[in-house]
Amino acid sequence: MGMEHRWSDRRPADLPVTLAYRPLGLIRGRLQDLSGGGAYIRTRIALLPNTPVELVVPNDEQDATRLLRLPAIVTRSGPEGAGLMFTQLTATQYEALLARARAALAPRPAVADRSRTRRRSGEP
Q1: Domains contained in the chain, CATH given
Q2: CA atoms within 13 A on the CB side of 46
């Protein structure tokens, strides 16, 4: 295995993303991890190394129209996904992406199952 050249720590993630990949169009994937220099995207589509892509991530969990669009280059590709190197990532974009990744990994509060509770007479 070759030596990795990483400028910042790799952070775990599990976030749905889209890759704008010119040879094929839009590809769905999952962000598996990220660092200040790049990301690993799980996808079943083989991507060509050295190909430009745009990583598209909803910037707000409640508003899917607010998107982060992050230009990158495919650095490696295999049967389970692709490594990307960001080409123009600002500190603000990285912090927004990291916040989305953390929010996706955070435990969700349990939702009460109201279908099992009995209604008293006269309650709607």
Answers
A1: 12-104 (2.40.10.220)
A2: 3
Residues 28-45: pLDDT tens digits?
999 999 998 999 999 999
Structure tokens at 16: 């749905």
69 pairs with which residues across the strands? 56
Question: What are phi and psi for residue 66, nearest 5 degrees?
Answer: -85, 110
Residue 46 CA to its chain's centroid (Å): 17
Residue 93, burial from CB neighbour count under 10 angstroms (0-12, 13-18, 19+)? middle
Cα gap 39→1, rounded to integer Å: 19
> In this structure, is the dihedral angle defined by the CA atoms of residues 43, 47, 49 and 54, taken in order, positive or negative?
negative
For residue range 20-29, what is the model confidence (pLDDT) as tens digits? 999 899 999 9
Question: What letter would DSSP give residue 47?
Answer: -
